[in-house]
Amino acid sequence: MKLRSNLKALADERNVTIREISRAIDYRFETVRLMYNDELERYPRDLLMRLCTYFNCGPGELFTVE
User: What is the pLDDT of residue 53?
Assistant: First the structure.
């Protein structure tokens, strides 16, 4: 089983760019980009909280399990 970031799907669904998300949640662009591309190895809690607030979703919606 593997945990995968669902950030790209959420962003595409809302038609927003990585840079727009990064600015809106006031978080480092590079970290958001890594999560978007499913390259982030560890997920900072504050990033998850900000993304959940931004997308109005729960943590379970930020990830998929394969």
Answer: 97
